[in-house]
Amino acid sequence: FVAINKFDRKGAADALRDVRKQYQRNRELFKQPPDETPVYGTIASRFNDDGVTALYQALAARLVEEGLHLGAGKLPVVATKHSTRQHAIVPSARVRYLAEIA
User: Fold this and answer.
1) pTM score over 0.70
2) In angstroms, rounded to a whole number, what is the distance separating the alpha carbons of residues 3 and 91?
3) Cα torsion for 19, 21, 27, 30, to the nearest 10°?
4) In this structure, how many other beta carbons lie within 10 angstroms of the beta carbon of residue 62?
5) Do residues 35 and 20 make contact, with C-beta atoms less than 8 angstroms apart?
6) Given a cut of 80, is residue 55 above it in pLDDT?
7) What confidence category does residue 82 fall into, taking pLDDT thresholds of 50, 70 and 90?
8) Structural domain count, the chain
9) Strands (E), the chain
C-alpha cells in the first residue's frame, strides 16, 4: 500500500498519477489499469476523508485475507482511492498571505 498524504496540495493529482505508473512499472503490471493499484491520495488532517477511509478499508480487507478476524465496520464503502473534497482552509494561492502582509 502506498499513501500520498497532503493530497490537497498543488500537484497532488500529478503525484498520484506518477506514483501509480511507477508502481505499475516496478511490479511489471502493465495490463493492470493504474486506478487498480494500491496507491491512495489522502488528507490525514481532515476528518472523514475519503482517501484515508479507502486506505483503511483496503488495509482491513487485506488483514482479513491474512486471517485476522475483524468485526463488520460501520463506514460506508468508498468508491474512490483519493480524497474528493479538496477545499483547504487557506487556499493554495494564498499560502504566503500572512508573510506578505507582515
Assistant:
1) yes
2) 23
3) 160
4) 12
5) yes
6) yes
7) confident
8) 1
9) 2-4, 39-41
